[in-house]
Structure formats: C-alpha cells, structure tokens
Amino acid sequence: MSDQVKLECVQGDITDQPDLDAVVNAANAELRTGGGVAGAIHRAAGPDLEEACRPLAPIKPGQAVVTSAFGLPNKKIIHCLGPVYNIDKPSDQLLADCYQNALRLADSEKLASLGFPAISTGAFGFPVHEAAEVAADAIHSVLSGLSHLRLVRMVLFSPGDKDVFQKALGISR
Ligand code: AR6
Predicted ipTM? Predict the structure, then answer.
C-alpha cells in the first residue's frame, strides 16, 4: 500500500541508523569489505559479517542478498551490487533492479523499515542526479506491492546529495 509507506531523506551515515530494521550495503561482487559504504558497514558489523557473506558471493549487478547485521544496530543488512556506470549496461535498469530487489527482499523478511545509501554514486561513478531519478522511479513503482515495509529512508553522506534525492523523490521538506 503505497500511501502507507513513508519516504524520507536524511543526511548522515548508513552505519548510524539505529531505528531502522535494516540497511542496504553498496557492496562489491565478492561481498567483502572495501571503500565507502562497504568499508564502513564491514568495520561496524565486525568480522562475522564477512564470514556470513562468503557462501552468498559472488552476486551480480542488480542482485540483493540478506544477512544478519552483527555489530550494526539493525536486524539485517541487505547487500546490493550496483552497476559500474556505463560499463555494466543498461546501467539505469541495473540500478533500478537494486532498489526493487532490496525493497522486495526486505518486505519478504517482514522488515518494517529500510535505509539506502546512494548506490553506485561513489566508486562506481553514477552521476548523482541520474541515480536519484532512477532510485525515485524504482522505489515508487514497487511500493504498492509491499505488505510489511512502512518506512524507506535514503541516507546521503553529503547535504547536496540529500537535496538532489529529496527533490527526485518529491519530498517537500
Ligand atoms: N553512509 C552513507 N553514505 C556513504 C557512506 C556512509 N558511511 N560512505 C560513503 N557514502 P560507494 P558504490 C556515500 O563508493 O559507488 C566500494 O569500495 C558515497 O559518498 O560506497 O556503489 C565497494 O567495495 C557515495 O555517494 O558505493 C564496491 O567495490 C555513496 O555512498 C564499490 O565501492 C556510494 O558510494 C561500490 O561503489
């Protein structure tokens, strides 16, 4: 029920969202630690996360898998492999797949709240305006099919990215 799902954008750190049931990792194919979001999530979750990820890897662009959150203050982590911009094609569709697969997986896990970083906009080179439009369309298009999710939060590292995502999602504040 789309009118029952709240969408919001905040500026902050994806590893510091204790009120969310789950957060999304902008992962690498091997589901190992790395830079950016993946590094921050693995550092905060601890070595048990890498152990839990091993049997699930490798994943493909657009795919989403779930693990426990270990040392993170959430129940679960949903790991998505975003596309490398203009190398994994079609990049827009693969990025949309990440958002949609993550939302459907969270809902199938009966999670009520999920936080996303701006997948693919760091090391993978996606322009933030384009990524925000793709994310907004992808999120809006699956909300009506979800049963358990009540809150979707975009967590952006920079204030500028927060403004871009807020506008794309049609959030006035
Ligand atoms: N919380 C929220 N957003 C963050 C955080 C954080 N703690 N840290 C960075 N960002 P990236 P990608 C922002 O590179 O483009 C990794 O090395 C960041 O400013 O984490 O999907 C993996 O191992 C940017 O806007 O993800 C992969 O190999 C956005 O999150 C590869 O990078 C995504 O940046 C994945 O690249």
Answer: 0.99
Within a 10 A sphere around the Cβ of 110, how many other Cβ atoms? 11
**Distances from the Cα of 58 to the Cαs of 31, 32, 80, in angstroms?**
7, 10, 11
- pLDDT, one tens digit per residue, over 110-138 is 999 999 999 999 999 999 999 999 999 99
Q: Is the dihedral of CA 171, 10, 84, 22 positive or negative?
A: negative
User: Which one-letter amino acid corresponds to residue 36?
Assistant: G
Q: Which CATH class is domain 2-169?
A: alpha beta
* Nearest CA owner, ligand 1 atom 16: 35
Task: Write the residue with the smallest CA distance to atom 13 of ligand 1.
Answer: 157
CA 28 to centroid of ligand 1, rounded, Å = 10
Burial class (CB in 10 A: 0-12, 13-18, 19+), 49: buried
Q: Where are the domains of the chain?
A: 2-169
